[in-house]
Amino acid sequence: MNAPFHLAFPIKDIETTRTFYGDLLGCEIGRSTEKWIDFNFFGNQLSAHVKPEELAQASTNAVDGKNVPVRHFGAVLEWEDWHTLADKLKGVKTEFIIEPYIRFEGEVGEQATMFFLDPSGNALEFKSFKDPSQIFAK
């Protein structure tokens, strides 16, 4: 059984964060105050805390010829769910850091991936493995 993770991270404000994670990504909203808000992030607990002074420019690392933000989080989705989300994000004209594409095509660990920013500049990656048994393949 996989245990859900908890992640706390800084945001600029509650309302744009609520709209992004709640309305756009479809995350159920949990408890909140004027200083923090919790989300059910694909079965995991995210706690977004208003701390704009903690937001920093992300550094990148080269992966598969792309500049991947070193600091990022996200979810591993089912193959069809990933494609549905990618289409939804394209439909609302999301500005991607890395456009949706298939990484390591034809290799071990082949995956669909995309990167974009939340309204506070936090980098998110959503990925999917056509063969879920390869999530930790070497």
Automatic annotation (TrEMBL):
Gene3D superfamilies: 2,3-Dihydroxybiphenyl 1,2-Dioxygenase, domain 1 (3.10.180.10). SUPFAM superfamilies: Glyoxalase/Bleomycin resistance protein/Dihydroxybiphenyl dioxygenase (SSF54593). It comes from the Bacteria. Residues 3-129 form the VOC domain. This is Glyoxalase. It comes from Roseivirga misakiensis.
